[in-house]
Amino acid sequence: MDLSIAAFLTQDGVTNGAIYALLALALVLVFAVTRIIWIPSGEFVTYGTLTLAGLQLGKPPGTMGLLIGVAVVAAAVEASATIRDGEWRRLPQRLALWLGVPLLIAGAIGWAAPRALPLSVQVLLTLAAVTALGPLLYRIVYQPIADASVLVLLIVSVALHLVLTGLGLFFFGAEGSRTPPFTGASFQIDAMTFSAQSLLVVATSVVLIGALYLFFGRSLYGKALRATAVNRIGARLVGISPSFAGTLTFVLAALLCAFCGVLIGPITTIYYDSGFLISLKGFVGAIIGGLVSYPLAAAGALLVGLLEAFSSFWASAFKEVIVFTLIIPVLLWRSLTTRHHEEDE
Fold first, then answer.
1. Per the structure, how many domains does the chain have?
2. Is the Cα torsion angle 323, 325, 329, 331 positive or negative in sign?
3. Separation of CA 233 from chain center
4. What is the DSSP secondary-structure string of 126-194?
5. Are the beta carbons of 3 and 191 closer than 8 angstroms?
6. Does residue 148 belong to any structural domain of this protein?
7. Which residue has the higher pLDDT, 205 or 319?
8. Is residue 263 part of a domain?
9. For the chain, which end, N or C, has fewer CB atoms within 10 Å of the first or last residue's CB respectively?
10. How many CB atoms neighbour CB 233 within 10 A?
11. What is the predicted pLDDT for the residue at 109?
């Protein structure tokens, strides 16, 4: 291996690691606030890529039908809960939020699909559609069992992952999709060539991580989520709604996963079932951070990307095995150094 090959592998590893870092941050965020190990996160990545690919082909993506169906179910669940609680006056407002907004997004996608709109508009519509699925699925699946044990929430996450994979096959088909690169430019420094596409992916990830840092450190909603992550009961006692915290968490996590789908589309071909393998790599990074530390999770995801890139050169047939083997010493070290505390109920 010479310097040029090492530089290329490092560039590829950092690019993939930046995407895995966003996914790891989403996993840490969801677990810290809601205690949910969010296995279906990979499906949101695939939905992001496949939605943007459909818009670029000029046909309505399957996300439109999926969004409408999920919105109808979520609105029915919310209406039932509102009527049961006797809050009739809030029913129109809640129906507008849980049904009207998703239908508006689906309508905008249906209108924009046959029109050759700029890439930036297509990306925004993709982010809006995939992000909207996050709180809708939380309202249907997780919010009714928010007080269940971590094991029950994990089982539900596995079931939801299988359902979303099947829905992905139904709405998007079995064919893979790949989006065109945002830019084909490149520049050279000495003997090393850098792709502008890779730099754009890394820069976008850094900006998003910085925005999350400011959100959690400076905004009222971000501090409310931090309080919920530290002590859910204490946050509830000071007036922070657990359901609102969960909904906001899934909005942010779905947005991060949708960004991952947009960024990873030009790098590799995505199929309806590609999300699980991608989410596992983000999960390895999140485990390195102990599912609680955002900086360690981002660093772990970057390590996963570099390890994957160099493994593909030295032992391409075993690169996935090498990456996932990384989780074993991390779990062993944490099991030996972390004291178990019973969860406060």
1. 1
2. positive
3. 26
4. HHHHHHHHHHHHIIIIIGGGTTS-HHHHHHHHHHHHHHHHHHHHHHH-SS-B-PPPS---EEEETTEEE
5. yes
6. yes
7. 205
8. yes
9. C
10. 10
11. 92
